[in-house]
Design brief:
Blueprint (H helix, E strand, L loop, with lengths): L7 H17 L4 H7 L3 H17 L8 H5 L6 H18 L3 H24 L9
Helix pairs in contact: 1-2, 1-3, 1-5, 5-6
Length: 128
């Protein structure tokens, strides 16, 4: 049985593992590569982001939506992001917090896609 997500080290594990998949992905990898030249600051920001989201630990600063709004993102990108994210969580963890992490990621993807679609005058929903 896999352990549940319980601390910052677990966040580092899933963030690093997830973004290694993202970098290799033919659909979403190029979008990230176009805007991230040094992955270390991005990964550190993601550790802080998920630490705040999951454990309420202060430290994340930024506006994630504003960073994503100018990117050429559409429904398939969010669906792929969620597939890779959920696969990563399932590979490493099992339990209530792992399930909650996947749920929060799904809600974020849905919200981002909804806001982006609204900005472009349309409506789209993530189906995963």
């Amino acid at each position: 049985m896999k352990a549940d997500i319980s601390n910052f080290e677990d966040i580092v594990l899933f963030v690093d593992s997830f973004y290694s998949k993202v970098k290799e992905d033919e659909l979403i990898g190029p979008i990230f590569d176009a805007v991230i030249t040094d992955w270390n600051p991005h990964l550190a920001k993601m550790y802080d982001f998920w630490n705040a989201v999951l454990f309420g630990i202060a430290g994340f600063k930024g506006n994630p939506f504003a960073r994503h709004a100018p990117l050429p993102l559409e429904k398939p990108h969010f669906e792929r992001w969620l597939i890779l994210f959920n696969q990563t969580i399932d590979e490493h963890f099992s339990g209530e917090m792992a399930d909650e992490t996947k749920k929060k990621a799904g809600m974020m993807a849905e919200m981002f896609l909804s806001k982006l679609s609204h900005m472009k005058g349309g409506s789209d929903r993530v189906i995963v």
